Amino acid sequence: QMQLVESGGGLVQAGGSLRLSCAASGRSFSGYGMGWFRQAPKKAREFVAGISYSGSFTYVADSVKGRFTISRDNARNTMALQMNSLKPEDTAVYYCAVSRRYGSGTPLLQVASYDYWGQGTQVTVSS
């Protein structure tokens, strides 16, 4: 089994930045793609960004394009999400996830395509 733990969330003013981290332990995520999702109150969980195992392929949702950057460090079993120019609509619980269904190529966007999930970290952006 794989355990994922997110950190780095918090309260920030609009226009500010946060860097989320995801640390994996237990089962190796060697060869697996990873992603970040978020869920705002009363809304469905949505894809934010994904990255292939090598890091060569990344994809971010249109709503965060140009503001968020995803990266990973396989040697340290970690993944990060750099969030800049934050907006109040970015307020949500952010989750990291690992997919056994893909490792290379364009990241998968569907929640159901991911097999392991962290507990989430709250990001609140004030106006």
Provide a brief overview of the structure.
The protein is built from no helices and eleven strands. It is an all-beta fold and 127 residues long. The mean pLDDT is 95.
- H/E element string? EEEEEEEEEEE
Characterize the biggest β-sheet: 7 strands, mixed
Q: Average pLDDT, to the nearest integer?
A: 95
Structural class: mainly beta
| Span between termini | 40 Å
- Please provide the count of β strands: 11
Radius of gyration (CA) equals 13 Å
Total helices: the number is 0
Oligomer: single chain
The helical percent reads under 10%
Give the amount of beta strand, in percent.
over 45%
Unreliable residue stretches: none
Shape category: globular
Describe this structure in words.
- With 127 residues, this protein is mostly beta strands.
- It is built from no helices and 11 strands.
- The strands form 2 sheets. Strands 2, 4, 5, 6, 9, 10 and 11 form a 7-stranded mixed beta sheet that branches. It has a 4-stranded antiparallel beta sheet with strand order 1-3-8-7, with no helix packed on it.
- Strand 5 and strand 6 form a beta hairpin.
- The model has no long low-confidence stretch (mean pLDDT 95).
